[in-house]
């Protein structure tokens, strides 16, 4: 079979139902393989950057992998901003780019270009992908597709890129003879949590009078929303979120206390400033959360941080008492098994203080004149949004008005970009 047909068959097996693309000469074989398929749809965008963003949104909403395709040269480079967005916000996407024929590629020769629109996209994107590969041997297509999908989804998710020359796309292959990828040798996060970690976390919690859970974007990436709600129900601990964690916990829950950070809610910032124990889940605690003086962040609190990225835990700016390298879902499952021994009775005064701050410092004020107050507008919008609405916001002031004052329920989604801010 033709290699490009194998690629599309592979995507279907991975439950990819939509591919976002811009037509171009260097991906004509892949597009031809997509044409007239009933089990997967090609969505033609107006720009490659839009295709990359669409793949990112698809991955977020489907809890799966997004796929975008572009031709060589400017088509590939136009996707770079979207690729960077996926990288910094940990979104699993496969970016497939077309490339000139291998006999037109310069490889290591000290010249600028041989083929028309020849561009070394693999070297360009390496700092903002988990893996990037130029496929020169058609017999390795299965190996690299399986490997790249595994890498994109495993550990801390992120984007990968496969660059396929035109003569490789049209090559004839025998799918039964293709070498597969084995992930047995790949280092993965342990599926077991040391009991000492749970014991130490519960020890801090029992001694605390003002505990707080800080929810980052990693909670939703781990698909741990149910486990988080179980923990809150059992322990009665108030919750604050980061910008990227806003829709990982229902904003209409009685223990939701707002978003922290430079542009956060006053109540949430007061809560984390006065907490004596913080359980930070899936957040890198960047300067927009902590401010530029990290020593003053949660200054009185014992800090337990759970993150799937060991590098983030090691390179922390904030004092951490217990750093847990683990999948959040697995950690919360283990914690929930033993949380029964924790009493909620002592939290009434702490919850009362947070409620008073919430009333004293609301995120919006009622307009006194005819003009529209943006935060009040967002508050009103919350009351009339459909039950299963997905809210997508641009980056800038509208993003902050929405994050501060939209009340996202458990069946709604709030999608925005964090690290890249594109």
Rg over C-alpha atoms, rounded to the nearest angstrom: 24 Å
Mean pLDDT: 94
The helix content, as a percent range, equals: 25-40%
Strand line-up in the sheet with most strands = 2-1-3-4-6-5
Tell me, what's the shape? Answer: elongated
User: Which parts are unreliable, with pLDDT below 50 for 5 consecutive residues or more?
Assistant: none
Class based on secondary structure composition and strand pairing: alpha/beta
Largest sheet: 6 strands, parallel
Please work out how many helical segments DSSP would assign: 18
Number of strands: 14
Q: Which band does the percent of strand residues land in?
A: 15-25%
End-to-end span in angstroms?
A: 40 Å
Structural write-up:
Helix 1 packs across helix 2 (28-34) and helix 3 (48-62) runs parallel beside helix 5 (80-88). By secondary structure, this protein is of the alpha/beta class. The chain has 18 helices and 14 strands. Helices cover 37% and strands 15% of the residues.
List the helices and strands and how they pair.
Layout lengths: L2 H11 L4 E4 L6 H7 L6 E4 L3 H15 L3 E5 L3 H4 L2 H9 L4 E7 L21 H5 L5 E4 L6 H13 L5 E7 H4 L25 H13 L3 E5 L2 H4 L3 H11 L3 E3 L14 E4 L6 H9 L2 E5 L5 H4 L11 E6 L2 H5 L7 E4 L2 H11 L9 H13 L13 H11 L5 E3 L4 H9 L7 E3 L7
Helix pairs in contact: 1-2, 3-5, 11-15, 12-16, 17-18
